[in-house]
Write a structure and sequence with these properties.
Length: 169
């Protein structure tokens, strides 16, 4: 894990580049790819440490972030996987102790996926350095700047969702 001084130095290097070429789409794309790569390294490390696939970690994130109880069908749509692949993913997550399947009491055919509390705490511990890096980064921006960043991320996610929908994935 980088020290605060190393993070600050890297941030200064990025700010210099970003400031000089703020409107350059290439600079933005390269920065997003770098960030995606760093997050992917953490995700793959967590997956390996828990005997999971990277897709399983994406499933865990989807279950965690869902506004209503996640079902295997919604998880399939979210991940763009086949029914069989989602079943295998949920089976792995259940065997590893990360999720549990709970049948809906009103309609026993409906299955909800719940993140097991102990497993959630384990994930929080593993990803704490990412949360700390995000907090340290956030602290370098004022409320107006953060509002723009949040708007950008939301708009980018909306655009990516449209791309995924348009190409059938």
């Amino acid at each position: 894990m980088a020290t605060a001084n190393q993070r600050g130095r890297r941030a200064h290097e990025w700010e210099s580049t970003a400031g000089a070429e703020a409107g350059d789409l290439h600079v933005l794309a390269a920065g997003l790819r770098r960030m995606n790569g760093e997050i992917n390294r953490l995700v793959h490390g967590f997956a390996a440490a828990h005997g999971l696939h990277a897709t399983d970690v994406q499933a865990l994130a989807a279950i965690l972030d869902a506004e209503e109880p996640m079902t295997p069908g919604r998880l399939r749509e979210h991940l763009g996987l086949t029914s069989g692949a989602v079943t295998a993913c949920v089976d792995r997550l259940e065997r590893a102790g990360h999720v549990r399947r709970v049948r809906e009491s009103a309609d026993r055919r409906v299955v909800h996926l719940h993140y097991v509390p102990d497993a959630r705490e384990s994930a929080r511990t593993y990803f704490r350095p990412l949360a700390q890096a995000a907090a340290a980064t956030r602290d370098r921006f004022d409320a107006e700047e953060l509002a723009v960043v949040v708007r950008f991320v939301a708009a980018m996610n909306d655009e990516l969702r449209l791309v995924r929908t348009a190409d059938g994935r």
